[in-house]
């Protein structure tokens, strides 16, 4: 096991730059989630680490070796491909056992490991089939099995759960997390699902259009997003972003003035903030017209079972808040909401976070 | 107004034409010309050849119905047995060499590098040259008096090179000619096959730790097998019928060293006028090829991953 480092990795495909000077330092035994929207360069970053793609500039370090110019087989990594990349002419058992066969593991040990992994991923009844005879989700688990059957320096997983049904995804999420923890393996886990990133990772790297936005533990990414993009990408429902102005009286937002404590007030005044962000769980219902309350009309009410999501509209702006289960309100009726400025963060016009929330509130 | 009416009637007529009866008959009507042509140029000669193979001929006239005598005689005829053995050897060595060379070239040309397109094009040229011309060229190379090889040898201080006069060398020379001419076909088919293979499994194999040789044995060959098998079968069937090159290069000689079955059949029919016997020989060749093809297809199906 060993840490992984990207040093100024840049990747250009002809005129298009898929990665801009990516720097990532992933300590040994860390589970890193590489999170970002489709096309932001996650797969490219992973393929560069695997050695399937050569970076235009920069270095890749695994452990203390510079592997930038090494063949994939000399890097000792295991990869789960986004498109599975199973061996079509081999049975599932042979697929899973292939990395072991290459390493001349004897047949008995191989069979034992294959059975073990297959059972953990619930694909043991499929071992005699060929990939063609499997569903997408089953193939994906075979790809996962083929990676975890061995003991590499690092696991690279490219959206390994994207094709599973909701129940299986949840249980696999836990399984993978446990497994990586048990193996103590450095893992780079690519996903566009922020819930996966938050629940599984020790570190989350948020990317956008080939640029790293933030590298931090999940709680920090959630509580202290580096910018507006991260704030909106992480969390479901996403953070509410409202136009905000700061004056000596406090924060002016959606027709109300919200008081803010002295030190953060000063920083807001100093940094020309234009917007504030507030998580849905940090907004509460309040009597319309009470001091500091924003008054709007109900846009839609969505009961989720354990809670209720309420969308409230103020002119051309909207916020979502979490209300208790059983909450009802007529669409179009007037509703007051309030929040504590200590829970909000503030962005400047470029979208970067100038003032973070005051305390680490408890999510959810 | 009238337009609308007219359109209405044509539509009704078309509806009638498209009725159930027309639907049933149309495919047969469309197929009829093709079927008639096939019957005339393929089935009738085949049928006639089959009939001829059961007759005893003299001076090109059928004299007697002899049943399977021609076939029975064939299997005790040393000339036929020799030709069969020569043909099998010829087919085996030619096709094997063409497959190996074709595959090697295809693997080499799979990579992208500067000038690869021109190289691919050049490699295909032998295939598009008329076989007779190829044979004439090789005759010029092999000829013992003025051939290129002799010229070479003499320039190096050696003597004449006897190729077409020596049984083993003539046979080898024939195989070399065939390999030169048909490796490009193998190359082309296998290159297309290789290019159509999915790329991801190969990437997975690289990450899983397979080197070039393991990748070739474990993945390239198994995935390429259907294409490889079809190419080999096609080429084998074709090689069984090789005629022009031998006819120009050696006429089957020296002695019987390169007398492939088609050459023997040709001589039977046109030199010795044994039309019935020659017909039986060609029917036998056909049956051998058919048996081989059926066997190959069976093997392909059984060995394929679809089980
Ligand atoms: N071989 C290539 N040639 C040209 N452009 C490429 C190539 N591979 C990727 N790209 C581009 O690089 C960008 C990043 O691609 P990448 O596959 O890394 O995205 P991703 O983050 O994995 O997206 P997704 O979540 O959809 O899988 C995309 O805009 C893509 O179009
Ligand atoms: Mg991807």
From TrEMBL, chain A:
ABC transporter domain ranges (all copies)? 4-234
Molecular function in Gene Ontology:
ATP binding
Question: What SUPFAM superfamilies does this protein map onto?
Answer: MOP-like, P-loop containing nucleoside triphosphate hydrolases
Q: Does the keyword Chloroplast apply?
A: no
Query: Do you know which Gene3D superfamilies this protein is assigned to?
Result: 2.40.50.100, Nucleic acid-binding proteins (2.40.50.140), P-loop containing nucleotide triphosphate hydrolases (3.40.50.300)
InterPro entries cross-referenced by the UniProt entry: AAA+_ATPase, ABC_transporter-like_ATP-bd, ABC_transporter-like_CS, ABC_transpr_MalK-like, ABC_transpr_MalK/UgpC-like, Mo/tungstate-bd_C_term_dom, NA-bd_OB-fold, P-loop_NTPase
Q: Which Pfam families match?
A: ABC_tran, TOBE_2
Cell membrane: is it a keyword of this entry? yes
Which keywords accompany this UniProt record? ATP-binding, Cell membrane, Membrane, Nucleotide-binding, Translocase, Transport
Q: SMART domains recorded for this chain?
A: AAA
Q: Which family does it belong to?
A: Belongs to the ABC transporter superfamily.
Which protein, by its recorded name, is this? ABC transporter ATP-binding protein
TrEMBL record, chain B:
UniProt-listed InterPro entries? MetI-like (IPR000515), MetI-like_sf (IPR035906)
Q: Which residues cross the membrane?
A: 21-47, 90-110, 122-142, 277-297
Coarse class of the primary localization is: membrane
Per UniProt, the keywords (alphabetical) are: Cell membrane, Membrane, Transmembrane, Transmembrane helix, Transport
| Subcellular compartments | Cell membrane
User: How is it placed in the membrane, per its record?
Assistant: Multi-pass membrane protein
Which ranges carry the ABC transmembrane type-1 domain? Answer: 84-296
Stored Gene3D superfamilies: MetI-like
Which family, according to the similarity comment?
Belongs to the binding-protein-dependent transport system permease family.
Task: Output this protein's name.
Answer: Sugar ABC transporter permease
Q: Which organism was this protein described from?
A: Dongia sedimenti
């Amino acid at each position: 096991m060993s840490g992984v480092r990207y040093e100024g990795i840049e990747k250009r495909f002809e005129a298009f730059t898929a990665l801009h000077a990516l720097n990532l330092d992933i300590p040994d035994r860390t589970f890193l989630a590489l999170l970002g929207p489709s096309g932001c360069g996650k797969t490219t970053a992973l393929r560069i680490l695997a050695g399937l793609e050569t970076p235009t500039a920069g270095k890749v370090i695994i452990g203390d070796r510079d592997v930038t110019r090494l063949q994939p087989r000399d890097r000792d990594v295991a990869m789960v491909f986004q498109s599975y990349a199973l061996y079509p002419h081999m049975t599932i058992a042979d697929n899973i056992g292939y990395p072991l066969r290459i390493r001349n593991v004897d047949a008995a040990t191989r069979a034992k490991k294959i059975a073990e992994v297959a059972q953990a991923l619930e694909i043991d009844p499929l071992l005699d089939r060929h990939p063609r005879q499997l569903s997408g989700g089953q193939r994906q688990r075979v790809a996962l099995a083929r990676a975890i059957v061995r003991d590499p320096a690092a696991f690279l997983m490219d959206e390994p759960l994207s094709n599973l049904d909701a129940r299986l995804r949840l249980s696999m999420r836990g399984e993978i997390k446990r497994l990586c923890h048990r193996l103590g393996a450095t893992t780079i886990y690519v996903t566009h699902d922020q819930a996966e990133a938050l629940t599984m990772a020790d570190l989350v790297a948020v990317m956008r259009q080939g640029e790293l936005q933030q590298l931090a533990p999940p709680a920090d990414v959630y509580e202290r997003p580096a910018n507006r993009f991260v704030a909106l990408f992480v969390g479901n429902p996403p953070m509410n972003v409202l136009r905000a102005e700061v004056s000596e009286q406090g924060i002016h937002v959606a027709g109300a003035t919200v008081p803010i404590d002295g030190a953060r007030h000063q920083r807001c005044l100093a940094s020309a903030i234009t917007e504030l962000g507030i998580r849905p769980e940090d907004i509460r219902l309040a009597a319309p017209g009470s001091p500091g309350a924003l008054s709007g009309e109900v846009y839609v009410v969505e009961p989720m079972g354990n809670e209720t999501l309420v969308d409230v509209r103020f002119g051309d702006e909207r916020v979502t808040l979490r209300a208790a289960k059983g909450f009802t309100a007529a669409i179009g009726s007037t509703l007051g909401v309030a929040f504590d400025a200590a829970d909000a963060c503030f962005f400047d016009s470029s979208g970067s976070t100038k003032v973070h929330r005051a305390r680490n509130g408890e999510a959810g | 107004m009238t337009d609308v009416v007219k359109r209405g009637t044509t539509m009704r007529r078309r509806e009638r034409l498209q009725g159930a009866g027309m639907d049933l008959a149309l495919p047969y009507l469309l197929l009829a010309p093709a079927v008639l042509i096939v019957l005339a140029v393929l089935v009738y000669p085949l049928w006639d050849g089959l009939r001829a193979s059961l007759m005893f001929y003299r001076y090109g006239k059928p004299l007697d119905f002899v049943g399977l005598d021609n076939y029975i005689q064939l299997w005790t005829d040393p000339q036929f047995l020799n030709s069969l053995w020569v043909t099998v050897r010829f087919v085996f060595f030619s096709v094997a060499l063409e497959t190996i060379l074709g595959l090697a070239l295809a693997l080499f040309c799979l990579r992208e590098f500067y000038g690869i397109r021109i190289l691919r094009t050049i490699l295909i040229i032998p295939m598009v040259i008329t076989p007779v011309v190829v044979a004439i060229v090789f005759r010029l190379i092999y000829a013992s008096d003025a051939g290129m090889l002799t010229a070479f040898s003499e320039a190096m201080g050696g003597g004449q090179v006897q190729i077409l006069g020596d049984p083993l060398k003539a046979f080898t020379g024939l195989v070399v000619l065939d390999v030169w001419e048909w490796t490009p076909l193998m190359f082309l088919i296998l290159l297309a096959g290789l290019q159509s293979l999915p790329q991801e499994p190969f990437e997975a194999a690289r990450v899983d730790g397979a080197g070039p040789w393991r990748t070739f044995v474990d993945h390239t060959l198994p995935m390429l097998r259907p294409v490889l098998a079809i190419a080999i079968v096609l080429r084998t069937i074709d090689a069984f019928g090789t005629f022009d090159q031998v006819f120009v290069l050696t006429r089957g000689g020296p002695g019987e060293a390169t007398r492939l079955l088609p050459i023997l059949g040709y001589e039977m029919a046109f030199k010795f006028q044994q039309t019935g016997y020659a017909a039986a020989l060609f029917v036998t060749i056909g049956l051998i090829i058919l048996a081989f093809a059926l066997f190959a297809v069976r093997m392909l199906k059984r060995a394929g991953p679809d089980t």
